[in-house]
Write a structure and sequence with these properties.
binds phosphoenolpyruvate; alpha/beta; globular; about 45% helix
Length: about 260
């Protein structure tokens, strides 16, 4: 049983940054936290900038991830990007099931599950996003919604496959709104997620699993979130577009 999980801080750049802008941001992040040892730092640029960013971060400890991937390795799937291709450009991670993909691109738990299994087969670690909407929270459905997303996304995965998975709890009402979950609120849901994983896959898998919090994490609130026992780092949207804010958030996760 692992008492202390190594924190992971991931920047989700969403649909921002041309290649030139992405390289400049990557260089600034490398200058700030490129050699940090006690936190895993991950950048997830848009697909078009992955290769260029991969080159820039190579001398550092910073890792690379995609923001989504296809559910097949290759074929006639116009507009899709295979996990094989992500691995090929230097990715070790892929974000799956982000609430923006669920909302605008009809992503389902079933799809996320299929993508997660393929991503793992291709050597990528999926970061699977879960979270309730404001209406669901107000209707006291948070645990039911998050529990059912978790169940669907991890369906039929083996213990060994689940060991590769990171979960990101991202309450939809906190993403890009400036409204952060309190550390206690996030901790309560993240403890529930870990218990749920323990019930299905055993204590050892659950205690080793990293569970991130995402939703308006900023330098001012990062430390109080990261000190919660079941919050193992963050998935950072808006603040990851600013190298000094992102650097401060990474530093807040240091042990
Ligand atoms: C996200 O998109 O994963 C996210 C958490 O965004 P923000 O930090 O901007 O709320």
């Amino acid at each position: 049983v692992i008492d202390k999980r190594r924190p992971l801080v991931a920047g989700n750049w969403k649909m921002h940054k041309t290649v030139g802008e992405a390289v400049a941001l990557a260089d600034a992040v490398v200058a700030g936290v490129g050699q940090v040892q006690d936190v895993d730092v991950l950048l997830c640029p848009p697909f078009t900038a992955l290769w260029a960013v991969s080159r820039r971060i190579e001398p550092s400890r910073i890792m690379l991830g995609g923001q989504n991937c296809a559910f097949e390795r290759e074929g006639a799937y116009t507009g899709e990007v295979s996990p094989v291709m992500l691995k090929d450009v230097g990715c070790n991670f892929v974000i799956l099931g982000h609430s923006e993909r669920r909302r605008y691109f009809a992503e389902t738990d079933q799809n996320v599950n299929r993508k997660a299994r393929l991503a793992i087969e291709c050597g990528l670690c999926p970061i699977i996003c879960l979270g309730e909407t404001l209406d669901q929270r107000n209707a006291k459905e948070t645990f039911a919604v998050v529990g059912s997303q978790l169940e669907g996304c991890l369906q039929d995965l083996s213990d060994d496959q689940v060991r590769k998975v990171t979960i990101a709890y991202e309450p939809v009402w906190a993403i890009g709104t400036g409204q952060t979950a309190t550390p206690e609120t996030a901790q309560e849901v993240q403890r529930f997620i870990r218990r749920n994983v323990a019930d299905r896959f055993g204590d050892e898998v659950a205690s080793a699993m990293r569970i991130l919090y995402g939703g308006s994490v900023k330098p001012a609130n990062a430390a109080s979130l990261f000190e919660q026992p079941d919050i193992d780092g963050g998935l950072i949207g808006g603040a990851s577009l600013d190298a000094s804010a992102f650097t401060a958030i990474v530093n807040a996760a240091r042990c």
